[in-house]
Amino acid sequence: ADRSEIEAAGPSEAAKKVKIGIYFATWWALNVVFNIYNKKVLNAYPYPWLTSTLSLACGSLMMLISWATGIAEAPKTDLEFWKTLLPVAVAHTIGHVAATVSMSKVAVSFTHIIKSGEPAFSVLVSRFLLGETFPVPVYLSLIPIIGGCALAAVTELNFNMTGFMGAMISNLAFVFRNIFSKKGMKGNSVSGMNYYACLSILSLALLTPFAIAVEGPQMWAAGWQIALSQIGPQFIWWVVAQSVFYHLYNQVSYMSLDEISPLTFSIGNTMKRISVIVSSIIIFHTPVQPVNALGAAIAVLGTFLYSQAKQ
Ligand code: 3PG
Known about the structure:
plastid, transit peptide, membrane
């Protein structure tokens, strides 16, 4: 259902707020679990191209089974749909693998601090590539976002260039993904859940050959033996958990995108990062200096100012 239908159906404002609140809480919780297992896997098994492929494969499989068994209704799609989806999938694939490569090199919290700068990328892309202009306060809000991210980056104890660039590339790719998918979902009969399912399947097809070329089965097999011998059989469950939770958090986020504006979505996404940053610092005992935390706080605050300025 699109927004106007939901409004026409007329659930009360309060009921709608509760529903969106539940979506958000579920999205963040699933994302925290994904981030923890993803990092546990990457620490023992540093093959981000494979783990990001497995996440997409697991989601694709879950959805194909759901469609085949009737748990979810399969979408009716035509060639035009898949053509429009292709640029979204290219951006999703690049953004996903870049973020995973980043997290294999640096602390999860660092990747997400840099990723909290996504609104700045959104404004710059809209301004310079799409020629959109914004009110002055929007541009001003970029100062704390960019400044805060820069401060957090230069004071990061475990700074690594690949880790930094991966998060930056992910930001840029996801801005394009959001622009393209907003267009693709508009006026489309495919629900958020099925839209994300199709996105996973197409992204999986795109990513697989690159994952084989960059890492490949030989490396994967050798690394797998090492990880299994170090961690024990539960390593397999970590891989399963990171893959299943990756799909679930993205599915819920696309389901909520059906019902909220892109702006509300990006605010929700930033708040999600706060929960990931805080929980991963606690769980992985990530060392943080006060000035480093200050940079992160300024960047996140900047994102809130940005959302206020955009409203
Ligand atoms: C990924 O692996 O795709 C990243 O963790 C995505 O990060 P995000 O969904 O939090 O932007």
